[in-house]
Each structure stands twice: as C-alpha cells, then as structure tokens.
Design brief:
By secondary structure, the protein is of the alpha/beta class. The chain has 10 helices and 19 strands.
Length: about 425
Amino acid sequence: MALLRHNVIDLIGSHTNRYHSALITCYTFDFLFFEERILPALRRSNIKNIVVFADGNFLERVLDNKTGREFASSRTYALSSIYSKNIFHPKMMLMVGKQQGLLLTGSGNLTASGLSCNDEIWGAFHLNDLEIPHALIFGQAWAYLQKNFNQVQGFNRTQLNWFSKYAPWLNQLPNPADNSFCLLPNGDEALFLSNGQKTVSHRVFEIIPPGAVAEITVISPYYDQDGRALLALQNYFQPQRINCLADIHSGLLPDQLLPTGGAINFYSWSECITDFNSSTNRLHAKAFHFLLNDGSQYLLLGSANATAPGLGIDGAVYMNEEACILLRRKTGKLYLNDLGITIKPEAAFDPATFKRVEISTSSGISHRGNQLRILHVELMANELMLYLKLPEKKLPPESISIQVQDHWDETIAILALPIGQNIQNYFT
C-alpha cells in the first residue's frame, strides 16, 4: 500500500474484466452523479452487479424531493437504506470477481465533491490469492458489510447473494474474529476497525499503550463543539501535543473547547499542504496520526471524524456506523510526509474565534415528516411490492392510499389498502 494522490473513480475503472460485482457504502448519495459518472466507470470495467448502501435517514430526506425518474435510464443498480443507532457513515467500495478483489476504505461519499474534488484519504487493497497476509483485511471488511444484509429488501437480497455465488473465495476468507494486524506488501501492517461491541477508540486505546505517544496529529473537517474526542485522546495518551488540521471555511470547529495550555493546537488545512487549491481542496479527509517515542507510528484512516459518535468515545450511545483502517509502521518515513503534510507551528489559530455554523448534509432539502416512508419498491411481472417504514413513536394509519403512474406520468391505478394486507411492513 503506497500513499499516492489518485482520483478514486479512475482507480476503480482501470481494470477491465477483473470484477463482476461492486458493493459501495456511503452516508450521502447523489443520484445524478452516481448514475452519470460512477455507473459508466463501473460498466466500462464490466461490473454489472452493483449494490449501494446509504444512510436511511439521509435517503428519506432526499427521496422526499425526488421525481421518481432517478432510475429511468439506470435500473441496473440496487440502492438500499441502512439504519443504525445514529448515522450510517462508512465509506467503502468492495469490488469482487471470480478470483480477485479490490477493497477501498476511506472518507469520500457518493457525491461529486466526495469522489472528484474534496481532499479525501482512502486505503486501497488488492487480493488475488487467499494465502497473502492481507486477505485478513478482506475477511474483516466482508464480515462487517454482512452485518447490514438483514436490512436489504426484495430482489436486492438476491443481488447480494450473487457476490459469494460468483466469487466463492469470499466464503474462504480468513476468520474475521482474528483481530491481529496483517502484513502489507510494503512492510507496514494493517487492521480493519469499526464501531461495534468494541468501538474504534476502544480498539485504538487497547493497541497503542498510554505514555508511549509523543505527538498526535488529527486531520478532520468536523469536531465536537466542546472537543470531547480530542480531550479523550489527550487524557488517555498524554502526548506532548496534539495538532489538529481543520478546514476553517467549511468544517465544524470546537469553538467551546476550553484552553489546554498549548497542548492542543489548530492549523488551517490550506497552510499544511503544498498543492492546496481554494476552489477544489475542501477538507473532508479523516485521519489520526500517532507518533510514538520510539519512532514507530500508527495511522488511523477511514470515515470517522474527530467526534465522540465517530470514534465511539466512551462507548457513546449514539455512536455512528464507521469503517476504518489502522496502519502500523515500525520504522521509516513519516506517514504525514507521505501525505505531503507540513505543520507550521507559527500558523496555529484559536478555534473559538470562528463561529460554528452547522453544515447541512441534505443540501437544503426539507424533511416533510410524513408518517410512512417507502423503503423499497419493485415490480416483478404484474406484482408491485412495497416495503414501508412505519412510524416508531406513533400508531400507523389503518390504511394507505397508493397512486401508481406509468412512464408518461399518467395515473393508472389508485388503491386504498389496509396496513398489513399485500404490503410488506418494515420496522426499524
């Protein structure tokens, strides 16, 4: 695994006939960008079986304002709403073929900014032999993805079954319960982490001993308002300093973080990379670099921001679903140097001087607050199947009215059906 600047779209579309299926997870999802930019790249590589997992609450807001034509020209992918305790936030791409696999774990959503112009960090792993050490990463990632399969409805479940049916090596991956590091071709070691019974922060605290860390560098666009996650890192590891790289224009800064006597300092992302372009380089990458007193290093990269829900600090009740890779390098070049990052101590700023403005991830989309949500619809021959999300805190209505339109927006049927009759009920 080398640290290089790539466009992820070019990376996934560079190998024809290696892979036949792709499973992609994200928080935010852009229909137009995915169908016009990502799908063609996948198809050029002959990837025909395409499944997308996106955060259910985000999709609810988006679909409130859609026309129904989003699949009009692209019916060849399966989109599923995934719900979690807080938000479904992992960004993963798993491409599988008969004998090979490609796994990407990082920070970019399925949007134009996430996969085209934001500054993001991804870890990419290729597999063509189950005997290579980092096959364990694939086993851990595949097991994590499978945890969400029970939320997938209808024919989308069949598409998921095609993964292991036509890539049988998925069933032969190393035991994901093995939580040990695996060796990478460049000599580094890697481990897949997620928030579960043990959170990302819990695992990091177990692996990296307290008192051994000289310096922590945090790269994140979003921070807790009171800096809760940063304070947890400081209290546990007691490093000499924590450097926080942030986007002062589009990030969320901890404007209520109490003074730490210079132990935690903030730097603008634009001052830390040499090729910064103000029109394109919005910081959306998430990474945590731990430099130990003996010169060894750890780099945590993935979807988790420097927030309590992201890292699962103290086993936060509302922790996010996240996917991360923890890298370990015992000797050699600093990961920060690989990433082209330079910190100038004189450029530190006080986050309290910047007003915290909550950023909407729904692009201004309003939420209508409807009682019922349509999670999934599919037409099989002459049978129309609906999967509904019923209200959690209110009694569902006794019946619903369904209006069915054809491709020319002409109403062809208006039905009033009682809940439970000819309708699939789905409870979160």
